[in-house]
Amino acid sequence: MEQIPLFERLGGRDGIRAMAERLLENHLQNPLIATRYANGSMDREQLVDGATEFFCTGLSGVPTYEGRPLADVHTGMNIDDAEFVAVLDDAIAAMGSLGVGEREQAEVLHILYSMKGDVVRL
Amino acid sequence: MEQIPLFERLGGRDGIRAMAERLLENHLQNPLIATRYANGSMDREQLVDGATEFFCTGLSGVPTYEGRPLADVHTGMNIDDAEFVAVLDDAIAAMGSLGVGEREQAEVLHILYSMKGDVVRL
Amino acid sequence: MEQIPLFERLGGRDGIRAMAERLLENHLQNPLIATRYANGSMDREQLVDGATEFFCTGLSGVPTYEGRPLADVHTGMNIDDAEFVAVLDDAIAAMGSLGVGEREQAEVLHILYSMKGDVVRL
Amino acid sequence: MEQIPLFERLGGRDGIRAMAERLLENHLQNPLIATRYANGSMDREQLVDGATEFFCTGLSGVPTYEGRPLADVHTGMNIDDAEFVAVLDDAIAAMGSLGVGEREQAEVLHILYSMKGDVVRL
Question: Is the CB of residue B106 less than 8 Å from the CB of residue C107?
């Protein structure tokens, strides 16, 4: 089991897309985050596509993500620690509701946390 | 002195515009706020114009402000208390550097603070 | 009216004590602050006494406050901007419910705000 | 390797104590946390002892921790997300400087994160 890549353990592109969809649903219910989507400037389908390809690229090594660098995407948003923690909470809840294993949850949390510098207060 | 309106005590439109300009300069130097302007989507001249007319309208009663309601402007920005406090700090510093009197500073602070509900976490 | 000191306009020691009591009541209802009192280490009567004498000293010039300096009192509490804003909200609500005038509210807010450096993140 | 318990992979009690010591050192250098220790009410040796036994109890199953429940310890401290994130940052830095493996770091981060409810805003 040690050798199976996280990408496969998460169910490949389909599993990752399901997580991205659930994550966005959670964000839209989360009062600390939902306002980000209130002005209608972000298309939901596009957000799920972008997140899916971003994570598939990182985990599979196949460069399908064509969006802007993570740091660019968050420039000007002034995201703080509380909002970042809300994102992590939503991600953990999404994985839990989809039955992702504890070990995979820990690895995903670790990866997400490592991106904090590109998300918070740029 | 009690009867002189705050609008006049602040130096009318010119005084208010000077405060708006100084405030934006402070914001651009303030690490808690400056990132908001990092993506270049906001024109500085336009920001000063908008702030000037917004406050002139509120203080003089002459409706020259043609922008969107304050709450609309901040929708989706997810501004939190720390960022709002940074705005107040910059406003107080701007008034101090322009020699605005203590009493006027208190009145302006009170007015700005009363707008918190339209700025923070909509 | 310009000449009447704020201390008198707030109703002297009695008025200030009423504000301190109402403020503490509000804090105990405020989820952002109430936890501070959860461990029972702070006596409520003592808190009201301290706040009353602190403000009477500052506003009347008669040095009846015998407590520690404000900065000392808050050392180690790690109070952040959000909690400080919650205090200001409670103070404004307290003054409003006691019928304190707009001008006095503005002056008190200005004074409280000027103490931020001794309260937040020491 | 899958079967080796995290307790052993972290180097047992000695490894965990080294992490607790490094973590406290990092906290004392971290401006978002250091003020918590500024009033001298917390003994450093005691803090390291407590953290060591707390984690050894959780990871080894041998109940050597005799302190108060985690939620009790943090009651009244009003710790927010930003301070909690600062703790996680310090923990990751501590593990990195001690050469703890990526997988172990992910598992520890996951465990720490799961304690958020007992640490933040009780």
Answer: yes
- Cβ contact B122:B73 at 8 Å: no
**CA dihedral of A94, A98, A100, A102, whole degrees rounded to 10:** 60
Chains linked to A by 3 or more Cβ pairs within 8 Å: B, D
Total beta-carbon pairs less than 8 A apart between chain B and chain C: 43
- D4 touching chain A per CB within 8 A: no
Distance between CA atoms of residues B93 and C113, nearest Å: 13
Residues of B in contact with A79 (CB under 8 A): 78
Within chain D, which residues score under 50 in pLDDT? none
- Picking from C35, C75, C79, the nearest residue to D76 by CB comes out as C35
Q: How far apart are CA B103 and CA D103, in angstroms?
A: 59
What span, in angstroms and rounded, lies between the C-alpha atoms of B38 and B30?
12
CA dist A103 and A111 (Å) reads 13
D77 reaches C (C-beta below 8 A): yes
3-class secondary structure, A30: coil
Distance from CA of B84 to the nearest CA of A (A): 12
Cα gap D113→D111, rounded to integer Å = 5
Say how many CB pairs under 8 Å bridge A and B: 50
Residues in Cβ contact with D5 at an 8 Å cutoff, skipping those fewer than 6 apart: D59, D60
Closest CA to A47 of A80, A75, A21: A21
Residue count of chain C: 122
Contact status of D93 with chain A (Cβ, < 8 Å): no
Shortest CA distance to A7 belongs to which of A57, A49, A65?
Answer: A57
Q: Look up residue D56 and give its two tokens.
A: 């050894």
Token code pair at residue B122? 């909509």
Cα(A88)–Cα(A100) distance, integer angstroms: 15
Per-residue pLDDT tens digits for C47-56? 999 999 999 9
Mutate to test the interface with B, among A27, A28, A35 (most CBs of B within 10 A): A35
Out of A81, A85, A110, the one facing D109 most closely (by C-beta) is A110
Q: Which residues of D touch C37 (CB under 8 A)?
A: 76
Region A98-111: mean pLDDT is 97
Interface membership of C30 toward B (CB under 8 Å): no
Compute the distance between CA of residue C23 and CA of residue C50 in angstroms, rounded to an integer: 13
- Residues C8 and C62: their CA atoms lie apart, in Å, by 13
Q: How far is C-alpha D81 from the geometric centre of its chain's CA atoms?
A: 16
pLDDT tens string A42-92:
789 999 999 999 999 999 999 999 999 999 999 999 999 999 999 999 999
Chain A interface includes B97 (CB < 8 A): no
Spell out the SS3 assignment of D92-106. Answer: HHHHHHCCCCHHHHH
